[in-house]
Amino acid sequence: MIKNIINLGDSAIYCDFGSEVNREINSQVINYFKNLQENKISGITNITPSYNKLIISFDLTQINYEKLKEKILKIKLENYDKESKNIIKVPVCVDEEFSLDLSRLSENLKISIDKILNSFFNKKYFCYMTGFVAGMPFLGDINKDIRFKRLETPRIKVPKGSIGITEQFCNIYTFESPGGWNIIGNTPIKVFDKFNNSRPTKINPGDTVEFYKISKSEYLNWNE
Amino acid sequence: MNKAYFEILRPGINSTLQDEGRAHQYHIGVSFSGAMDKRNYLISNCLVGNKSNAASLEFAYQGPLLKLKFGNATAAITGNVTFNIIRNNSNIEKGICYQTFYLNSEDQIDIISTDKSVYGYLSVKESFVGEYFWGSCSVNTRAKIGSNQGEKYSINDKLYLNQNENEFSSKKVEYLNSRIEFIRVLKGTNYNYFSEKAKKFFFNSEFTVSKLTDRMGMRLEGPILENIVDTNIRSEGLIKGVIQVPPDGNPIIMLSDHGSIGGYPKIGVVISADYDKFVQLTPGSKIKFKSIQLSEAETLFKIYNMETENIITQIK
Q: Which of A13, A171, B8, B200 lies 20 to 30 A from A1 at CA?
């Protein structure tokens, strides 16, 4: 499970689950994250799971690194892995207006736009983590034939709802923000909703995402 | 009856409502936010008798021009702030930080500048009306969460007060903001990604705070810190104070509104005891880093908190 535990500054614990990115390691991270959430150890202010790391921040006025580390290592781990996982269907419009990098990808990868889209849409994706900005899901893995590096110079503004791909991953820009991923379409759905108190993020770690194509008129008339 | 509010006649550069911040949301990508300089935030609230986690107006560099409407208020400003109180009869009084003042309806506060520092705080007795998300009204402009639809204030916005009227209670405290010379850090989880030369540069050279500094992060300029392993890591969680080094070799220190995850190697982490003071460094300031051990960092934090408590008990 955890390969190494060290401090990150004076008010966080850094748990290292390995260096590879795969579902197995990520599921261990998510399971540990859920166990910590359930245990509600006082003093913890944030738990941040990512591909293969888990960072636990704490309030230094309440507890310190050594004491919290001891408590964490004593937790009896439950297996939350069997919990039912959500499958979320995400509509995507790939109209020229939204697919900012599709033709450039086609040139660089030397495959047709249709082939890129077929490869992208005919696969289910696993959510490794959520973050950077509110609600942004990091999904994977995309097929090898459509993997490409980030833009050399990131865009200053990527439109909200953009679907981006880079390396083995894809994501959804939940806010207009700077970014360097290759944009292949846009979704009209709300992936982050601050007014939904129990589930502000539509896609959570461990969930499965299925993208499907919609026309521009469906996009423009989308009603959630 | 009309509720009392401040009419914002000039918003200032970055005026937002802040409290102690929003915990337990990093895993969905929502950063902690909260007052940048906790000590000054706390003193301003204690001066006006507010309980913990009250909402204060944080401003940076040039502050707002505010006109009180339909009420009276006891208020206090902390930081290194130059401000005037413009009375309804046009009399101008020079404002004094770290002591309460009274405002009548139609009086104005003109917050001119945060001198040789970045952040200042305005608190009012019984606090401001905040919009709460996950236990905090702190504005997070990236996620559009918190008071004022998660945006900084603009001209003609209204900042409502919880209480329309209160009796003036005169309180003050002596406090002088000292300038930080060395930012103390613990080595980061990727410290060994950097060349021996880079490690030496990091702890012996001077760095300059660049203009690209805001509530999300502080970018520094100085000798290029050469990475000999990998300039990108798999994205992982971040905390306030983490010093990331992107491929260009110039360090960035994460501040309260930082992204919840990041993919640049971490050379070090600023200790908690130094947060309040280093966020007050203005662009152009020269700073140096000093390496210390975890146990020292914990002791320094205890001492820093005791000092803060001591200042608060001296409010008379």
A: A171
| CATH topology (fold) of A87-220 | Cyclophilin (2.40.100)
ipTM: 0.95
- In SS3 terms, A98-114 reads as CCCCHHHHHHHHCCCHH
Peptide bond into A95 cis (omega under 30): no
Spatial contact of A91 and A212, defined as CB atoms under 8 Å apart: yes
Residue in A46, A58, A199, A202 to test binding to B, most B beta-carbons within 10 Å: A46
Q: What are phi and psi of B210, to 5 degrees?
A: -90, 170
Binary contact (A131, B298; C-beta < 8 A): no
A41 touching B (Cβ < 8 Å):
no
Tens digits of per-residue pLDDT, B144-185? 999 999 999 999 999 999 999 889 999 999 999 999 989 999
Contacts of A6 in chain B (CB under 8 A): 189
Tracing tokens 């702030």 back to the chain, one arrives at B81
B106, B15: one domain: yes
Whether residues B192 and B288 share a domain: the answer is yes
How far is it, in rounded angstroms, from Cα A87 to Cα A84?
Answer: 10
Residue B26 has its nearest CB partner, among A19, A48, A52, at: A48
CB–CB contact B24 A19 (8 Å): no
3-state SS assignment for residue A21: coil
CA–CA distances in Å: residue B252 to residues A50, B147, B229: 21, 28, 19
**pLDDT tens per residue across span A145-185:** 999 998 888 898 999 999 999 999 999 999 998 888 999 99
B227 domain residue, yes or no: yes
Chain B residues lying within 8 Å of A36, measured CB to CB? none
Closest CA to B138 of B69, B71, B73, B53: B53
Same fold for the pair A4-74 and A87-220? no
Residues in chain A, pLDDT under 70:
81-84
CB proximity A181 to B under 8 Å: no
* Domain span at B56: 5-160
Nearest to A65 among B142, B242, B294 (CB): B294
* Domain A4-74, classified CATH 3.90.650.10, yes or no: no
Contacts of A131 in chain B (CB under 8 A): 26-29, 235, 237, 259-261
- The kind and range of the H/E element at B295 are helix B294-313
Q: Report the run of H or E that residue A139 belongs to, with start and end.
A: strand A137-140
Q: Which of B255, B254, B246, B259 is nearest to B190 (CA)?
A: B246
Q: How many structural domains are present in chain B? A: 2
Q: Scanning every residue of chain B, which has its alpha carbon at the shortest distance from the alpha carbon of A177?
A: B142
So where are chain A's domains?
4-74, 87-220
- Other Cβ atoms within 10 Å of A39 Cβ, number: 15
